[in-house]
Amino acid sequence: MPLNLTTYSKITWCPGCPNSQILVAFRQAIQELVDQNKLKPENLVAFAGIGCHGKITDYLNTNSFTSLHGRLIPAMTGAKCANPELTCIGFSGDGDSYSEGLEHLIHAARRNSDIKVFIHDNQLFALTTGQASSRSPLGFKSKTTPLGSIEPPFNPLLTLLSAGASFVARTYAGDLKGTKRIMEAAISHKGFAFVDIIQPCITFFDTRDYFKDRIYWIDENLPKNDLNKAMALVNGGDEKVPLGIFYEVERPTFEDQLAKI
Ligand SMILES: Cc1ncc(C[n+]2csc(CCOP(=O)(O)OP(=O)(O)O)c2C)c(N)n1
Question: Is 142 inside a domain boundary?
């Protein structure tokens, strides 16, 4: 049955912002999972952090919750513990979860909380007009780094793999089909699912050409349970940027363990 996942809210992202593609991919993924009886719309809760990415819940006709900046994960894990029937899906930014709220992300991965986290990774703080984040590259010039950033960028995939995330993937917002596929797999995964979505900020740091020349999809049929291989893949330097599911294993979730106490 076709769901109405749209709302009356006017979209206020910049015209052409890849956030819109993330929104469309998500709506399509939800529709497909509902059609396949893999998801009950009444159990879906979309969570948002603070930032441009966080507007996404305004445009989704689902249950939703907007958290404080950097505190997306505590809101999600709290809801999931209170009602394990819920499918908790969070949208966050590299400022919201790789800078301010990083500790929560790491511990949710370690615990294998059964939540799905999609990070709109635009390598800066977009809503506050383009300051450097922990994801900005060396030499990045912004209002907070006028002479160029002197910090190497954070590698979220490597960190989440070593923290114990049971599903780790990366996609590119401009690839709608690929993003939908990764979202469906993440939502279907039982356990902590983490997806970094490369989302060029066309206003403050337009990396579309940069990524167009570097992204490639890894072979879908490669085994996904080899942690060392996954780590090597996501730590292979900047020249090529692999996309796909790097790691996926099953292990007991935090909520299942909690229910046994
Ligand atoms: C505790 C707190 N610190 C700072 C801010 C200001 N603030 C609002 S949005 C934002 C940047 C968000 O960046 P990111 O999470 O990368 O999201 P984007 O806008 O890039 O999607 C900041 C610093 C805030 N609202 N609350």
Answer: yes
How many Cα atoms sit within 13 Å of 197 on the Cβ side?
32
Cα–ligand 1 centroid distance for 223 (angstroms) = 37
Tell the residue nearest (CA) to atom 2 of ligand 1. 69
CA atoms within 13 Å, Cβ hemisphere of 42? 0
Q: Pick the residue whose CA is nearest to atom 3 on ligand 1.
A: 69
Give the domain range for residue 117.
Answer: 19-260
pLDDT in tens, 158-187: 999 999 999 999 999 999 999 999 999 999
Q: Please give the model's pTM, rounded to 2 decimal places.
A: 0.98
Q: What's the CA-to-centroid distance between 18 and ligand 1, angstroms? A: 18
**Residues in contact with 181: Cβ distance below 8 Å, sequence separation at least 6, in sequence order:** none
- Which residues form ligand 1's pocket by a CB distance below 6 Å? 49-53, 69, 93-96, 120, 122, 125-128, 133
Report the share of the chain in percent with pLDDT over 70: 100
CATH code where residue 179 lies: 3.40.50.970
In a domain, 2, yes or no: no
Distance CA(224)–CA(222), nearest Å, equals 6
Q: What mean pLDDT comes out for the span 193-216?
A: 98
User: CA 126 to CA 207: how far, in whole Å?
Assistant: 13
Q: What is the pLDDT of residues 81-91, one digit of tens each?
A: 999 999 999 99
Q: Whose CA is nearest to atom 6 of ligand 1?
A: 128
Q: Which amino acid residue places its CA nearest to atom 12 of ligand 1?
A: 51
The number of the ligand 1 atom at minimal distance from the alpha carbon of 97 is 15
Segment 3-45, tens digit of pLDDT: 999 999 999 999 999 999 999 999 999 999 999 999 999 999 9
